Amino acid sequence: MWNETGISDRISPMVKIEIVYEGDLHCRLKHGPSGQEIVTDAPVDNGGKGEFFSPTDLAASAMGSCMLTIMAISAQKHSIELKGTRVEVLKEMITAPVRRIGKLTVQFFMPKGIDPSKRLILERAAHSCPVHKSFNSDVEIPVSFQYPD
Fold first, then answer.
1. Do 105 and 92 meet the contact criterion of CB atoms below 8 Å apart?
2. In 3-state terms, the chain is what percent helix, strand and coil (to 5)?
3. What is the pTM of this model?
4. Does domain 17-146 have CATH number 3.30.300.20?
5. Cα–Cα distances in Å, from 69 out to 25, 28, 65, 132, 135?
6. Domain boundaries, the chain
7. DSSP of 67-127
8. Over the stretch 34-81, which tens digit does the pLDDT of each residue have?
9. Are the beta carbons of 93 and 48 closer than 8 angstroms?
10. If both were cysteines, with which of 42, 75, 112, 136 could 80 make a disulfide (CB 3.0 to 4.6 Å apart)?
């Protein structure tokens, strides 16, 4: 079943992610299906060395890459070329009432040649990203799209 943006709305199978604490505020994450690994570190302002992505950096990165991936899936279905599209996510932490992500500013820099009549398809797809939808309304998420002339 496909929704209005051309994305499947079927339930995905579960994915296992194994996380092992290695000491020195580092965790090793292993993606079950692929076996790929990444390491996280606590941010400098929270006692870490900032040597790797922090867990909240990964949350921000996940949202940006999810939005672009969902947009690319829709682009394929509508014969739109997205190669070269770039996304910047600016993560802002807050400390009150608790330390958490307060704002994720997302800016898309689109490639040349996208037909103006197809831009709304892409923008709707980006906003349908499941990571974006997983943040509650307490997290501000302004999103903008820059199209070259």
1. yes
2. 30, 30, 40
3. 0.87
4. yes
5. 30, 24, 6, 12, 18
6. 17-146
7. HHHHHHHHHHHTT---TT-EEEEEEEEE-SSSSEEEEEEEEEEPPTT--GGGHHHHHHHHH
8. 999 999 999 998 999 999 999 999 999 999 999 999 999 999 999 999
9. no
10. 75
